Amino acid sequence: MKLIVLFALLLFFQSTPMAKCDNYYPSMMEYSTRPLLYSLSQKSGKTINLSNIPDSEYEIFQNQKLDYIWMMGMWKLGAYGLHYDRTNQEELANFKALLPDFTLDDVIGSPYAVTEYVINPDIGTAQDLIAFRKRLNGMGIKLILDFVPNHSAVDCPWNTTNPKYYIHAPKGSVPPYDSNRYLPWGIAYGGDKNGAWKDVAQLNYWNQDLRDAQIQNLLAIAKYADGIRTDMSELALNDQIKTNWYEQLSSWGYTRPNTEFWCDAISAVKAQYPDIIFLAEQYGGFDDQLIECGFDFLYDKPLLDNLASYKMSNIWDYLNSKITYFPVYAQYLENHDEPRAVAKFGSWWQANAGAVASFTLPGMRFSFEGQWKGFKNKLDVHLRRAKSEDTIQDVADFYKKFQNILESDVFKKGTWILINDCSNKNQLITYRWYYKKSDGSIEKRLVALNFSDSQADGNVVVSDAYAQSGDNIVITELFTGKQYTRSASQMRSTGLNVIIESWVAQIFSY
Ligand SMILES: *[C@@H]1O[C@H](CO)[C@@H](O)[C@H](O)[C@H]1NC(C)=O
Ligand SMILES: *[C@@H]1O[C@H](CO)[C@@H](O)[C@H](O)[C@H]1NC(C)=O
Ligand SMILES: CC(=O)N[C@H]1CO[C@H](CO)[C@@H](O)[C@@H]1O
């Protein structure tokens, strides 16, 4: 009987986002691979590829204390996409706006128009990739690589060898096909109901053979990686395919499969590589389905947009609505698709405050190279460089301290509590964390962030504040090292009084 209850409980927990019993909240940095190699080449005056990255760069990787590095854009691309980018007037106007002095050599083609999951020969060889990962792993850093499910490059070999892997114009329609949606030979451009991406071709997830071939691609990636980041993940779900492509697929006799591609694919990969993680780029509405299929982390775009809106009641509502989900979310302020954090938040100090609000949540802490320098110029995926700019030293100093604070077990493995009992929710965001160490002692943190443009005064109830003896407790603010003596009983009842400067965070141990 007891066993049955236990089993039922286990099932219950497995089907909720809280599933992982030994939580670990990793930090991850995205690098754009070809721009990184280009900048290293510029700096050293010789061509740098994956095989000869200077030691000084590995030192930088190591000093950042990252758990994962995502080397975005490792795979082989075709001539079709590059030609498209170098000749399309709209794209060129875009590049010009981002990088006024760009030349055609700066246009390197989208890394999301993959022809084959083999390493891009401009970047290195399979052996170079293996050696690169080994060196990272030796420093305790794991490697994440991309998988782009929803489309392939137009000049992917499958265009010729396996045209049925793609979605075609409805059966019975005749050329010339609608050139906004279809290639001249009838294969659909990658896209959805709202638009097409004309450098890529749309794959057909209602064809079991394509699913099998994509699982083989994932297994091929898994050989080289500790994690896989999957592009636009919700688009491979049956519901989304039905919404976007039902007319085309049903005309050719395809029916909705009984299983989800992701459930089949992730279980197949994890059967062979049990420690690999899956990170889903996704934009909402399908979180539960993706979690059920085995994704370890999902992009959390609504948090970013809520923070950048500065509407405190919306921020608090969102935090309260996602309490059980945060452990499976990946929090970010910027990445290759988004504006830089400093641009999005309006200033470096606001972006830093956004980092505290995001990265002191549970889940993956996801940064983009340049964020820790306070860069504000976008690095477009089609280009090998962004407009150059200088590091903002205050931002670099902030991240150095902040990374040290986040390194402790309490933030990596502990339990997060949203403190709703805060007297000034118009300005403050307040969390606490605790973690029981192997020696039985408990590590605790209080995060009090002033997310407003004036000084904030508030009382924050810290219900697990206890003194060793007597009532006085010494609390230490970790950014400044300053110590304060406060009454523990007062912290538990009326709360700790904090007075915090605009956009400043205080993180206390107590
Ligand atoms: C990478 O650079 C090394 C050293 O310059 C060179 O020997 C090698 O051929 C290059 N690899 C590729 C794939 O270009
Ligand atoms: C793709 O296949 C079509 C039809 O077989 C062919 O006409 C076209 O040239 C191919 N395109 C590429 C880029 O391989
Ligand atoms: C605990 C606390 O609130 N400490 C300090 C916060 O910052 C103000 C200045 O803004 C100090 O006066 C407080 O003592």
Automatic annotation (TrEMBL):
<dbReference type="InterPro" id="IPR017853">
    <property type="entry name" value="GH"/>
</dbReference>
<protein>
    <submittedName>
        <fullName>Alpha amylase</fullName>
    </submittedName>
</protein>
<feature type="domain" description="Glycosyl hydrolase family 13 catalytic">
    <location>
        <begin position="81"/>
        <end position="403"/>
    </location>
</feature>
<keyword id="KW-0732">Signal</keyword>
<dbReference type="InterPro" id="IPR006047">
    <property type="entry name" value="GH13_cat_dom"/>
</dbReference>
<feature type="signal peptide">
    <location>
        <begin position="1"/>
        <end position="21"/>
    </location>
</feature>
<dbReference type="Pfam" id="PF00128">
    <property type="entry name" value="Alpha-amylase"/>
</dbReference>
